[in-house]
Structures are given as structure tokens and as C-alpha cells.
Amino acid sequence: MRLLLSNDDGIDSPFLPAFAAALTGVADVEIVVPAREQSWIGRAYNRHAAVAVGEAEVGGFKCRTVAGTPSDCVNIALSHLLPEPPDAVVSGLNIGQNVALPLLWSSGTFAAAVEAAGWGIPAFACSMRLLKKFYEICRLRREPPPDELRAHLEAASEHAARYIADCVSRGGFAFGEVRNLNYPAGFSEESEFSECVPARAKLAPLYVKNPDGTYGFSYAMGETAPSPDGRPTDVECLNAGIACVSKIFINAG
Q1: Beta strand pairing call for 53-58 and 61-66
Q2: Which residues of the chain form beta strands (DSSP E)?
Q3: Model-level pTM greater than 0.85?
Q4: C-alpha–C-alpha distance, residues 39 and 173, integer Å
């Protein structure tokens, strides 16, 4: 099995080595990631600038870096860097959850998977909710995961790798289908795993006013509604400590 791995946290993501190690246990993996962090960039492309491709090594894995967005990474990889299409494209493992519509469309992690789905390639977006103290260490300070977090990270990475390999082997993907996986902060091999649907979230203020009159970004999710057909939502699952996957069809009419 051949996989393309990308992300939105960039080449220096503290989660990249563990996730790459898990995926290489089930497939041959090409890694093409942003040269720097590109979180919350959504479906942006670098239309107005030339995009450079470089090489790097992370955790013993050879990677290529793209001086652009997650969508740039996948588009350039599929059209120029890979000799043939992969069996699937995997984005992640993201530092933090990616749940609820319409917020999902702001995620660079989800965008990389959407790019692949638009090419008709099976696509997976993988994310993990973190406790605030770990989010500050890994996402803000870019430091390696502490031992307390590493066990949960490796368990989530191994589970995602097995799930992806099984799904690709079984087939049955619709054109434009993205499978969005989210893992709770304390995920272990004993944790429950459930199918779900994206929560429907009301948008809320995402900026706070600074003393100097500027506005700073501050993630906030508005009120969410239960699914109309009674199925669990991604937000409900994570709040209950349940890992989950939703199927999202980007070209659904």
C-alpha cells in the first residue's frame, strides 16, 4: 500500500515522527508537508507566489517540504512529486481536534484531505484533542510530547494506521469522500471508537480586542446542535472520551 502523508502543522510538528512511524508499519509512505506551520489556513493556495520544494529528515524519515499551504502540498505532490497516484492521502496527525461544520472548512488538516478527495483519491484527516498543558507544549512551544502524552499519541497513531489500511484494503470510497478521524485526549487501545457525523456549530466571535486596539485570534466554538437523525456528533463523542470518524462528501448535491 502506498500513502501520501501531509499535515498543516509543518515539518517541525512534534506529532509528525510518531504518526509517520505508525503509517510506515502498514504502507510505503511519501511525506510532503508545509515548510512551516499552516494551521487554520483552510483551502488556500499560493496563487500569487512561486512555491519552493525542499528536502528534510524528521525522526529518520525523508520528507519533502513545500513553502506553501496544505492544499499546495497535496496538489504539487500529486501532480509533480509522486511517480503515480497513492492508494490514499492521509493528513495529520493534527495537534488539536478538527470537528464541527462549518469550522472544519477552516482547518488546514481537513483541507489537505479535501484536496486529495477532489482528485478522486481516498482521503483521511486525522486529529487529536489535547489537554491545554500539552497543547501549549506541542503546538505553541513546538516541543516533543512529554511521556504522559506520548502513550496516547502513539496509541492514536497506531489505531489510525490500522483503520486507514483496513479501509483502503476494503475499498468502497465515493468520489469526493473524506473520512475525518478525531481522537480524545486520553485515547488508549481500550477506548471506544464510533462512527459519527460532524456537529452543526453556530459561529461565535473568534477574536478578542487587545489593549492596543488590534484583534487577536482566540478559538471559540459556538453552540452545537444534535444531529437531526439521532446519530452521535464528533463533539459529543470527544466529550465522552470516544474516538470517532465521520464521512464527509465534498461534492454532495
Answers
A1: antiparallel
A2: 2-6, 28-34, 53-58, 61-66, 88-95, 123-128, 177-183, 193-196, 200-201, 207-209, 215-217, 224-225, 243-249
A3: yes
A4: 27
CB 186 within 8 A of CB 47: no
pLDDT tens digits, one per residue of 125-146:
999 999 999 999 999 999 999 9
The cell numbers describing 79, all together, are 501532480
Question: Which residue carries 470527544 as its cell?
Answer: 238
Task: Note whether 93 and 150 are within 8 A (CB).
Answer: no
And the C-alpha cell for 171? 475499498
> Measured in whole angstroms, how far is the alpha carbon of residue 27 from the centre of its chain?
18
Amino acid at 228: P
Which are the contacts of 15, defined by CB distance < 8 A and separation ≥ 6?
7, 9, 92, 93, 94, 95, 128, 138, 145, 153, 157
What residues have CB less than 8 Å from 248, skipping those under 6 apart?
104, 177, 178, 179, 180, 198
d(CA 219, CA 216): 10
Contact 1, 81 (CB under 8 A): no
